[in-house]
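[step 3/7] inverse_fold.run input=structure_tokens len=368
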């Protein structure tokens, strides 16, 4: 990947001002995209004249070399004490004659931006904007392969859980077990905090697991994902605990499944972001659950969960091929529970078979 990272930095270098310009990247996912792994809080200085520099705080027990020290990689600067890597990067750029330095203003707090100007009085700062995030939207095949591996790990962990006894176990215990299984199968860790929701909690989008125990007749909603080589996926499934679901559970599940299928079928290069959201929203609205869908039907995934694009009713833009997204409609009925069905897919043209489904655990309403 070192050649890939170098090419990405060359792209960013070309965006720098021709007047001795430089850019400082500090958002963690963007730093990783441009150099590979880096210590938390690191900042990358990319200069038009070349000679990129990665500044950060390395663990004293670790060497700041490794893959980053390869030929063509950025020069490594290990900072002492509590020095701010962004401040150090901007100061270095100014010392070496950069006429202006582009920074990610959306990542810096107002207080940090003011401190930066005070610490480096000669700096002329401009806004890099979300240039790197925009570049990250379309994935190359190596990135998609990492996402595919993350999805395979996730499917395997979830499949194993479904083979175990669930009644009487707590949401919290099941979530911890799922995260352990992810790591056991090769994940770097969970892509996001695993959510297990049962009974009246089921179907809630942001539910944090509690000590509520799984009971017969419950809906059980599970949302998890693996992180593999930095890349993250999401899957969400809903099951019924017991021998057979109630009529209202079947009806609600069928509606959410139809909404999810409609949105998946709308994924195609050139499709409006809003059109994907509308496909799911119209199904739920026709069934009387339109207000239950959150602000978006899905969003991009990669080095982060919740990247661009956002598939929502006010989103502007069109999908491109090789863009991985989630499709995750859900309905929660207060006091009763609900359904969520989440998948990670890659947008592909119809000539290539249409959207590639990465998370393949069955979406049949299983009674466990």
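[step 3/7] decode complete -> sequence:
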């Amino acid at each position: 990947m070192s050649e890939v990272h170098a090419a990405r930095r060359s792209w960013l270098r070309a965006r720098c001002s021709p007047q001795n310009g430089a850019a400082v990247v500090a958002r963690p996912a963007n730093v990783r995209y441009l150099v590979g792994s880096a210590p938390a809080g690191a900042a990358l200085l990319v200069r038009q004249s070349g000679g990129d520099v990665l500044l950060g705080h390395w663990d004293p027990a670790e060497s700041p070399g490794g893959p980053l020290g390869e030929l063509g990689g950025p020069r490594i600067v290990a900072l002492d004490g509590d020095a701010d890597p962004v401040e150090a990067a901007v100061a270095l750029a100014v010392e070496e004659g950069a006429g202006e330095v582009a920074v990610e203003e959306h990542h810096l707090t107002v207080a940090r931006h003011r401190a930066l100007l005070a610490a480096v009085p000669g700096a002329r700062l401009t806004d890099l904007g979300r240039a790197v995030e925009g570049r990250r939207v379309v994935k190359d095949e190596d990135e998609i392969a990492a996402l595919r591996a993350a999805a395979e790990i996730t499917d395997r962990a979830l499949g194993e859980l479904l083979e175990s006894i669930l009644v009487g176990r707590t949401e919290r215990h099941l979530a911890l077990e799922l995260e352990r299984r992810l790591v056991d199968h090769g994940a770097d860790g969970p892509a996001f905090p695993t959510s297990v929701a049962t009974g009246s909690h089921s179907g809630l989008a942001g539910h944090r697991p509690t000590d509520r125990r799984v009971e017969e007749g419950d809906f059980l909603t599970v949302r998890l994902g693996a992180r593999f080589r930095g890349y993250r996926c999401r899957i969400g499934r809903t099951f019924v605990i017991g021998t057979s679901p109630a009529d209202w559970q079947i009806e609600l599940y069928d509606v959410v499944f139809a909404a999810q299928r409609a949105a998946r079928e709308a994924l195609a290069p050139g499709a409006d972001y809003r059109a994907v959201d509308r496909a799911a929203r119209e199904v739920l609205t026709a069934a009387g659950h339109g207000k239950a869908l959150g602000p978006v039907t899905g969003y991009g995934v990669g080095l982060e969960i919740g990247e661009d694009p956002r598939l929502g009713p006010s989103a502007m833009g069109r999908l491109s091929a090789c863009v991985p997204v989630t499709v995750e409609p859900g309905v929660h009925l207060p006091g009763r529970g609900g359904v969520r069905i989440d998948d990670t897919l890659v947008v592909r043209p119809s000539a290539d078979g249409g959207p590639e489904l990465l998370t393949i655990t069955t979406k049949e309403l299983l009674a466990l």
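[step 4/7] annotate
The longest helix spans residues 141-162.
DSSP finds nine helices and 19 strands in the chain.
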